[in-house]
Specification:
Strand content: under 5%
Number of strands: 0
Distance between the termini: 18 Å
Number of domains: 1
Radius of gyration: 13 Å
Order of helices and strands: HHHHHH
Number of helices: 6
Structural class: mainly alpha
Length: 81
């Protein structure tokens, strides 16, 4: 989550994914996967960070990329854990 928030901050300041790609030496797809995590429902983030629930990172990437609405994210998250 720390990387996701770091990339989100850079993206919101610069509006440029290319800068993140170059500075972090990663592909565009990977940057977007982390940016999607940064925009997850706050409820999901809180449950994970509080240790209430755990989920595999790949599943979390999938939820974040397929569902942009927080309610849909929460539904997918509840069925995944």
């Amino acid at each position: 989550m720390a990387y996701a928030w770091k990339y989100r901050k850079i993206y919101e300041q610069d509006g440029d994914v290319k800068g993140i790609m170059e500075s972090e030496k990663m592909g565009k797809r990977t940057v977007y996967k982390y940016l999607n995590l940064a925009y997850l429902s706050p409820r999901i983030i809180n449950e994970i960070m509080d240790g209430q629930k755990s989920i595999n990172l790949q599943e979390l990437f999938t939820i974040a990329s397929k569902h942009h609405d927080p309610a849909e994210q929460e539904q997918a998250f509840s069925t995944a854990v």
